Amino acid sequence: MAVHEQVDDDALPCHAIDFGVGSTASLFTGGDVFFEEYTSYSADTVVKTWDDIDRLQFDPDNRWVHYDLEFWRGFSSAYTPGIAVSPHFFRSPLDLANDLRGDQVFIDMHDEPEQVDRLVTACTDMTIDAVDFLRQKVPLFGEAPSGIWGMATSSPDIVVVNGDPVDLISIEMGERFNHPHIERLGREAGPVFFHHHTLGVSRVTSVSKMEGIIVQNFIYDQKCPKVLEILDDEWIEASGRVPIDVCQDLTEAKDLDAVLEKMAQGRFVVHCYGQTSDECNELIARVRSYDS
Fold this sequence. Notes:
Layout: E1 14-16, H1 21-29, E2 33-36, E3 39-42, H2 63-77, E4 84-86, E5 89-91, H3 93-101, H4 104-111, H5 113-137, E6 146-148, E7 151-153, E8 159-162, H6 171-177, H7 179-188, E9 192-197, H8 204-208, E10 213-219, H9 227-230, H10 233-241, E11 244-249, H11 256-263, E12 268-271, H12 277-288
Parallel strand pairs: 1-4, 5-8, 8-9, 9-10, 10-11, 11-12
Antiparallel strand pairs: 2-3, 6-7
Helix pairs in contact: 3-5, 4-5, 5-7
């Protein structure tokens, strides 16, 4: 942050808990996790039969919930006004269902879709309960702006979710098993920051049509299409419905000015990086010259 203060950009300091996808699932299951570099994974699935769905519920006494509360108590005691916060980098209901059921859930979508509906509904219930509980226990969440990864809003109620499964299934399957539950999160918990990957660039329009989304975020995957190289009118139209956060260094564009000229027709959150503060500020001025 000390280095970042030398740069006159529009990014805002943000923080949300993300101890890895496994620990996020354990926020609801209390299960064990194993940690690897930058993330964690659940040690086992918990929905082995469909009867197990009936036992799913958010438990405030879960040790992983206590870990979150202990972190936020310390964070709140040292909080500097203006820093944006989000209670947790949650998994989308479908992503949580994938963890609880394992990859079998993708077969279940075809063989037992009604049971998948039950499971994802339960995951939505638990997520809403967790968001409500954390907001009640941590006063900061009702006072501070909310956001993640440099993007923030004065609204204190953003729900950040990892929506990766939409990139692994068809658009039609996403609209059946993902979209209604994200829209419910938006209605009952707050506007949704929806993260997924460039493996799913073809989902840009479908995701943008979900109600309750405040930002659609794309993280670049190696060997996948680069947003900066495929921007077209479909992307401009989708960004008109919901701003698109493109987490790809703008300086990687073959023709930066052409990309900025195209993006200026829509609504995009962009990222660029330089080696020095002077170089960064020059890039910022170049980007802002296209900001209408």
